[in-house]
UniProtKB/TrEMBL annotation:
Pfam families named in the record: DUF659
Organism of origin: Aphanomyces astaci (Crayfish plague agent)
The protein's name: DUF659 domain-containing protein
Localization in the cell: Nucleus
Keyword Ubl conjugation: no
Domain DUF659 span(s) in chain numbering: 23-107
InterPro entries referenced in this protein's UniProt entry, alphabetically: DUF659, RNaseH-like_sf, ZnF_BED_domain_contain
Domain of life: Eukaryota
Entry-linked SUPFAM superfamilies: Ribonuclease H-like
Record's keyword terms, sorted: Metal-binding, Nucleus, Zinc, Zinc-finger
Record GO cellular component, one term: nucleus
Length: 148
């Protein structure tokens, strides 16, 4: 599925100008996506559009080439937030990040499964916040254990 969104400087975001569902008969290739993007652009007047932002999928990049050739002033590019999200997901699969992430998930699950512990963490968080900011002077004190 492809959603089309238009953003105007002095207005809120208009969601779902058009929605397109792709299936085996209606393939999500560069030509079809370029055609749908062009239809969405015509609905809001092409001369008001300076750029198109999509994810970085191959079919989207193919659509960019078609649209930029047809409309020389149009700038098409990938979404930086989407690219960063994909990058972070890939980095989190590498060691030692994957191990740290898994350990963090286990600690989070442990705390969330114990109501009293969750409440204690919430009290500590409230204590550590000063005027809405995390205070650098507050923190946890780890009491050394005595060896037996």
């Amino acid at each position: 599925m492809v959603n089309f969104v238009a953003v105007f400087p002095n207005k809120s975001v208009n969601l779902s100008l058009r929605q397109r569902h792709f299936n085996s008969r209606n393939v999500a290739d560069g030509e079809n996506i370029a055609h749908d993007l062009e239809n969405a652009m015509m609905a809001i007047e092409i001369d008001k559009i300076s750029g198109v932002v999509t994810d970085n999928a191959a079919c989207m990049r193919a659509a960019w080439k078609i649209l930029e050739a047809k409309y020389p002033g149009l700038i098409c590019n990938g979404c930086a937030a989407h690219a960063l999200n994909v990058l972070v997901k890939d980095v989190c699969k590498l060691e030692p990040y994957a191990t740290i992430l898994e350990s963090s998930r286990r600690v989070t699950s442990f705390v969330k499964d114990r109501n009293a512990l969750t409440k204690r963490f919430e009290r500590i968080q409230q204590h550590m916040h000063v005027d809405g900011e995390l205070s650098g002077h507050q923190g946890f004190y780890v009491r050394p254990t005595e060896e037996k």
